[in-house]
């Protein structure tokens, strides 16, 4: 079993098939035996002993007791956007607004979108319904045996079991997706993978709706009557809600301010008293919650300080620092492996199934995040695109390399006779800077005008394009000057004016430095116009080899060394440089350095 696994689990001992424990007993927070866990983007778990893992950038792996791992491949031009799970069904949503399904039709007859005779998790099937109805699927959520789809921005559909009105369509059955009537425009949808309770946020007016099973008051509508159509949840504006998740008989809600509310069955709602409306959980009143997951009974909440709290679980299941009252939030100790990442925000991930809970690290694509920040700042741009009066500042090298067109060509094709509007331009730039497809139709029109292949190939991702850009020496528009000591000069030479200074140049793209390093952003913020901004001297006194490796890391997000490169020195120098260059996400570089230490057995 790999010691570098960042996926841990606890729960049913039957899940020991993931840990290779010979005694068939699953201790608290046991590392999994899954390989390459640092590539996990998301994990979702069904009811039985199976779960689906989305691995970066576009891979799916399915794990099930007594079966070999299965791998699934989507068409090459499809990019995964999200995955969701129910008891026996998994759905995969792609950036193109299409849906694929994976299910065990032999167990459950009311599997959403599938015939009941589908063999057990044998293959992924493309769901043709949405394409036939000309629906672009923006988001998906799944309950125990039901699914909701937000389409074309504000149209709500549901399919699967209509137990206790969980589809929100009255008494009708929903084997195939059916439209759900909500009085207002739906903007977000929420569920729990093992529940029959669903929630929706609307805008204009700004409300929170709920429907489905409410036998324990878990909808928070003030009663225990199940709701067969969307019903307003009082006391909350939709814009106040960060997330909502439900178990079999409880629902937990987190606001944008990080306040945690619960309702439903007293043993599982985090309050310890039966509640039919969402009530603030006292033990978390002073905590700012940022993440939430629910199983059948258990709930896990992560705070902005990377503190983990849980309740509704069996005593002894989680490592805790105090005597455990399973009905109210109890602080849960994290594995020692995670202590290196506690200072990093938005990396720890939590997930629950019926009898198991997962804890893992999302080594997110920090390149996307860095370029998103650079794009939204609108700083340090070197050209503009758009029509007169609606020009948008951009970074020339990035635009030209991603499109393989010059700025003049882009300007002529997009803002000539068939000019696109500002909204369409912004949609195009979101793809350029961080691979986001916010409006498929608008982006396709823009690609057609530019005579580019649509949809973009998975070989044309931002990550791959920037890695290739590292090799393009001709387009590098900036230089870092590294002081090279003159070996022939006497050490006691005190004539500074006549002292010979030799420099070696490291060419780089200026926008890469700006995106990845706070030091360079601060430097360019204060530079005078008369100064030469095409080069800068490095003052870290690091070796040229270490700086070259750091610059390559800025492009590739990875570090690879051989024994003859003096790994010990490079790791030492780059460890010091992490703080100096003010990297936006230091943990990723630290993780790469840790990998090198293990590779060469360094202390």
TrEMBL record:
Residues 476-563 form the BTB domain. It comes from Anaeramoeba flamelloides. InterPro entries: BTB/POZ_dom (IPR000210), Ran_GTPase-activating (IPR051553), RCC1/BLIP-II (IPR009091), Reg_chr_condens (IPR000408), SKP1/BTB/POZ_sf (IPR011333). It comes from the Eukaryota. RCC repeats lie at residues 206-257. This is Btk-binding protein-related. Signal peptide: none annotated.
